[in-house]
Specification:
By secondary structure, the protein is an alpha/beta fold. It contains 15 helices and twelve strands. The chain starts with 11 loop residues before the first helix and ends with a helix.
C-alpha cells in the first residue's frame, strides 16, 4: 500500500456522518440537506437532449485530448467570458470535472519528495488540494483566510523559505466556502510571486459563473497573466466546470486551460492515467459551453435565494451575501460541531461544521489556528422555497436556543 494514504484526513462528509450518528431528528420535518455543494436546479433541457441524442457514440474510445470541437467551444467561451484568446490545440484540455483535474494535476506537476516540495493553499479549502499534495509527496502549507484579511490568503505574509520550496499555489475564486472574489490585481501579484520564485499558480474557478454583480463578474487568472504581459499564460492553470455553471454535477465535465508548457506534460500524464471524457459527454458539454443564457438564469435563482433567505436569518445570525458562489459562511459564535448536531437534532436540517474544512496552523489563538472554527457552511443549493423553509428552521432553532 502507498504509505501516504495514512496521511489523509477523513473527508468532511465522513466526519459529518459520524457527528450525526445516533441522533434522531423529528420525523415530522422532512430532511433538508444544505451541507454539500451539489446544485439541485433543473439541468438545461437542451444539454440533456444533446446527451441523449449522442449516446450512440459510445462505440469508440475517446481520445484524451478531447474532440477539436470540444476544445473550440471552451476557447470561445473563455473569449466571451474573460476576453482572453487561448489556442484550443495547445492550451485547453477537457477533464472529468474539476475534482479529478485538481488531483491529477498535482500528481503530474510535483517534483520528487526529496526536494521537499510545498503546495500552498487557502485555509479553509477544498480537501482535494490537501489530499493531492500529500499523495504527491508534497507538504501542504495552509494560508489562513479570515474576516480580517477579507477571506483572502495573505501572500505577503508567507515566509521566503516557503516560497523557495513552493511548486504550486492553489487559489480559489470565488472562494469555497467564503465566496470571496480575488481581484485582478491580487491575481497579478500572485503571478509576480510565481515568476520570482518559479512556481505554478493553479486557480480553481469552478464558481466563477456564480456572482452577485452582473456588471463586475469575477476575473480569471488568465486575464491577470495577460495584464502582466504573459501572452502564453506562463505558470498559469485554471480549472472550470459545468457542475455549478449549468447545474449538471453528474455530467462530470470541466476543463483546464493555461500554459502550453504545462498542458503538454499534463496531457501525457492523463493519457496514461486513462481519464478521457466520453464523446457523448463532450458533445453535451459543447451545447452547455455555447450557451450563456441558462447560466445567467441560474445566477438569478441564487440571487433570489439570497434575497429571500438573508432577511430571515439576519436578525439571529451573522450572515452576509458573498460576492460569489452559493454558500453562507456565518460565525455562529459557538462550537460549530455542537451547533451542527443540535440543529440536525432539532430541525432535521444538515449543514457542515466550518472546522471540517480547515486545518490547525499552530497560531497561538486556538480559534485563529483553524479559521473554520465556530463557523458553518450553509449550501443554498436546494430550490428557492426549500431554502426559505430551511432559513425559517434555522431561525426557529436559534430563537429557541436564545430563550433557553
Amino acid at each position: 500500500m502507498n504509505g501516504r494514504l495514512e496521511l489523509l484526513a477523513a473527508y468532511p462528509f465522513e466526519r459529518l456522518a459520524r457527528l450525526k450518528s445516533g441522533v434522531t431528528p423529528p420525523a415530522s420535518l422532512p430532511h433538508i440537506a444544505m451541507s454539500i455543494g451539489e446544485p439541485k436546479h433543473a439541468p438545461p433541457p437542451f444539454v440533456i437532449e444533446a446527451l441523449r441524442r449522442e449516446l450512440s457514440k459510445l462505440d469508440s474510445y475517446p481520445v484524451t485530448a478531447g474532440l477539436p470541437e470540444t476544445r473550440a467551444s471552451i476557447a470561445h467561451w473563455l473569449d466571451r467570458r474573460f476576453k482572453v484568446k487561448v489556442s484550443p490545440d495547445s492550451m485547453v484540455l477537457p477533464v472529468n470535472g474539476t475534482r479529478e483535474a485538481l488531483f491529477s494535476f498535482v500528481q503530474a506537476m510535483v517534483s520528487q519528495p526529496a526536494a521537499k516540495p510545498v503546495v500552498a493553499m487557502p485555509n479553509p479549502f477544498y480537501q482535494i488540494y490537501e489530499g493531492a499534495a500529500l499523495l504527491a509527496g508534497a507538504e501542504p502549507v495552509f494560508l489562513n483566510t479570515t474576516e480580517g484579511n477579507r477571506f483572502q490568503p495573505d501572500l505577503d505574509a508567507v515566509p521566503e523559505a516557503i516560497w523557495k520550496r513552493c511548486e504550486i499555489l492553489f487559489l480559489c475564486t470565488p472562494g469555497n466556502p467564503t465566496g470571496s472574489v480575488l481581484s485582478l490585481e491580487y491575481l497579478r501579484h500572485a503571478l509576480r510571486l510565481a515568476e520570482k520564485h518559479d512556481f505554478v499558480v493553479a486557480s480553481d474557478e469552478c464558481y466563477a459563473e456564480l456572482y452577485r454583480d452582473e456588471a463586475n463578474p469575477p476575473p480569471s487568472l488568465l486575464q491577470a497573466a495577460l495584464a502582466n504581459g504573459h501572452d502564453t499564460f506562463q505558470r498559469c492553470m485554471v480549472f472550470h466546470s459545468l457542475s455549478k455553471r449549468s447545474s449538471v454535477p453528474g455530467l462530470r465535465s470541466g476543463f483546464v486551460a493555461g500554459d502550453p508548457a504545462l498542458i503538454k506534460p499534463y496531457l501525457l500524464y492523463r493519457t496514461y492515467h486513462g481519464c478521457a471524457m466520453p464523446v457523448p459527454t463532450q458533445l453535451a458539454s459543447i451545447a452547455a459551453w455555447n450557451d450563456d443564457a441558462h447560466a445567467a438564469a441560474n445566477r438569478a435563482l441564487y440571487r433570489e435565494k439570497y434575497a429571500r433567505v438573508l432577511p430571515i436569518l439576519a436578525p439571529v445570525l451573522d450572515v452576509v451575501e458573498p460576492d460569489g458562489g452559493f454558500y453562507l459562511w456565518p460565525d455562529v459564535k459557538r462550537d460549530d460541531e455542537i451547533f451542527t448536531r443540535d440543529l440536525f437534532a432539532s430541525q432535521n436540517l444538515t449543514i457542515l461544521p466550518g472546522s471540517y474544512l480547515g486545518r490547525e496552523t499552530g497560531a497561538r489563538d486556538s480559534r485563529a489556528g483553524n479559521p473554520g472554527r465556530q463557523r458553518v457552511r450553509i449550501s443554498l443549493v436546494a430550490p428557492v422555497d426549500e431554502c426559505v423553509i430551511a432559513a425559517q428552521r434555522i431561525r426557529t432553532f436559534l430563537e429557541t436556543k436564545t430563550s433557553d
